[in-house]
Amino acid sequence: MSTQDFQRNRENFCYRHPDRQSFVLCQRCLRTICPECQTQGAVGVICPECLRDQQKAQSPAQKKAERRWSRPRAMSASSGQPVVTYTIIAITAFVYLLTLIPGGFGGAVQDALYFWAPLLYPEFRGTSQPWRLLTVALVHSGIWHVGLNMLALWMIGRSLEPLLGRWRFLTLYLLSALGGSVAVTLLSFTTPVVGASGAIFGLFGALLVIGRHIGANIAGIALVLGINLVIGFIPGFNVSWQAHVGGLVVGLLVAFIFTRTRAVRQRGLQIGLLVAVGAGLVALLLVPVFFPALVIL
């Protein structure tokens, strides 16, 4: 349910479909367009009107070259489906099924992907396995664990991915997963963890920031997030509150960057800030090496 301010701000809705909210702008006219109205351009997407004007302005030679070398229109236009969300769910489900294979194979898959901070540092374990920072989001402890995480991803992704666009959504998911792993490294160094909870909490945080930015009523989202966050601190639930907090903080930060760099002219700034977030998270992984006293075991 939306607030009156949200309803009055037409920039939050597709100019061709006033009932569809979006977070993506046409790179030429800077109007908001929904996934159905987006056509991939050389950089970003353009709306149908700008595409038509662009085609009218083409010379005969340009039109001939476009027909010969460009992709079919149906392949260029976004389908509006949360493809990244469905892909992540499919990959995660596939990995979970692999971990169920008996004979030691399933256990080997789990052992190769779960996160345990000492495995990042050669000085602790004689090896370095940095892929675990992200692959932890692919392995889970049981059917309920993977089921609830993927259900949350499905519910959030269907709304958030069309708003952000596929690449922004994927960036948000990966940085949130990384943030969860970094938080576990600093706050619970010797605890092995599995699951996509850090990434999921990052999506929750992003939904809060973006919802607040466009004027939506975020009370329900905040309540659900608060309940799930508190559960992590209750003894006996055996969940990593560190990963939850880390993913949430990164999700809030990335969403704030998205909301402050919406314009096409700010795309370079947006990419630079996202790279800085990733670099900052990697830099925090040096704390156990240079300041081991600050790490909580």
Write a concise synopsis of the structure shown.
The protein has helices spanning 4-8, 48-56, 60-69, 73-76, 83-99, 105-113, 122-125, 132-135, 143-164, 166-187, 197-213, 219-231, 241-260, 267-284, 287-290; strands at residues 39-40, 45-46.
What does this structure look like?
The protein is mainly alpha-helical and 297 residues long. The chain has helices spanning 4-8, 48-56, 60-69, 73-76, 83-99, 105-113, 122-125, 132-135, 143-164, 166-187, 197-213, 219-231, 241-260, 267-284, 287-290; strands at residues 39-40, 45-46. The protein has a two-stranded antiparallel sheet with strand order 1-2. Helix 9 (143-164) runs parallel beside helix 11 (197-213) and helix 13 (241-260) runs antiparallel to helix 14. The chain is elongated and about 65 Å long. The N and C termini lie far apart (44 Å). Mean pLDDT is 87; it is low at 68-78.
The total beta strand count reads: 2
Global outline: elongated
Q: Tell me the radius of gyration.
A: 22 Å
**Tell me about the biggest sheet?**
2 strands, antiparallel
Query: SSE order in H/E notation?
Result: HEEHHHHHHHHHHHHHH
Strand order of the largest sheet: 1-2
What structural class do helix, strand and pairing data support? mainly alpha
Low-pLDDT stretches? 68-78
Strand content: under 5%
Average pLDDT, all residues:
87
- Figure out the total of helices: 15
Topology (SSEs and partners):
Layout: H1 4-8, E1 39-40, E2 45-46, H2 48-56, H3 60-69, H4 73-76, H5 83-99, H6 105-113, H7 122-125, H8 132-135, H9 143-164, H10 166-187, H11 197-213, H12 219-231, H13 241-260, H14 267-284, H15 287-290
Antiparallel strand pairs: 1-2
Helix pairs in contact: 5-6, 5-9, 9-10, 9-11, 10-11, 10-13, 10-14, 11-13, 13-14
